[in-house]
Amino acid sequence: MSASALAGLALLVIGESHMSLSGQLIDTLHDDLTRRGAVVTSIGACGASAEEWLKTVSKGCGAERIGKGKAVIKGRDTKTTPIDQLITKTKPDVVVVIIGDTMASYDKPVFPRTWAWQGITGLTKAIAATGKACIWVGPPYGTPGGQYQKTDARVQQMSKFLATNVAPCEYIDSTTFSKPGEWATIDGQHFNRSGYKAWGDAIGRAIADSSTAKKVKK
Question: Where does the source fall among the domains of life (predicted)?
Fold first, then answer.
């Protein structure tokens, strides 16, 4: 689809630490969506799981960016805001959720399926209750090991789990955007600036091509 596919659409993008510092998706994805004509509000909170967007929780870092303004890096005063309140405030056409790595529990030998399912379905139901369309973006490949003990196998497991549990949100599979290890990381999980540029552009294209965007645009 052309760049005008998102023209005039209001997007609320919420996510984890990948959206919490300068040079990350708070910049690259936000810029890409804005270039495509969308009116974007982006909010990131480090380590925020799905369930933590149903209440107010203090987090160690985060950022917020509205429209064509610059990102405001919040640091230790970061708090999540319940999704229904965010939707009431920003009035989006589509809510975009970027949560995967935070809930993949790479440091645990067994993926906590029940906990993940409860948080994911809790958030999707809360979004659906507002009548808003939504898109959920899954985790990309990183570098195995590192500070967060990320593995390709757990990324694949998390992505497949999200794909079958985020309905009615449309799912975007970030593992299709790069090969394992293709995008360099600084700690196994978080990318350098070029990695975030590549991921942000890929997400932007996927959102523009999504059936959700086409449906809402009509």
Answer: Bacteria
Give me 22's structure tokens. Answer: 């300068």
Angle at CA 103, nearest 5°, toward 67 and 31?
A: 20
Residue with tokens 């990381």: 185
Question: In degrees rounded to 5, what are phi and psi of residue 151?
Answer: -135, 150
Sign of torsion over alpha carbons 88, 208, 6, 31: positive
Determine if residue 185 is left, alpha or beta; phi over 0 gives left, psi from -120 to 50 gives alpha, anything else beta: beta
Spatial distance between the Cα atoms of 101 and 98, rounded to a whole number of angstroms? 9
Q: What is the pTM of this model?
A: 0.96
Lookup: tokens for 132: 């808003």
- The pLDDT profile of the chain, 218 residues, written as one tens digit per residue, is 344 789 999 999 999 999 999 999 999 999 999 999 999 999 999 999 999 999 999 999 999 999 999 999 998 889 999 999 999 999 999 999 999 999 999 999 999 999 999 999 999 999 999 999 999 999 999 999 899 999 999 999 999 999 999 999 999 999 999 999 999 999 999 999 999 999 999 999 999 999 999 999 76
**Which CATH number applies to 3-217?**
3.40.50.1110
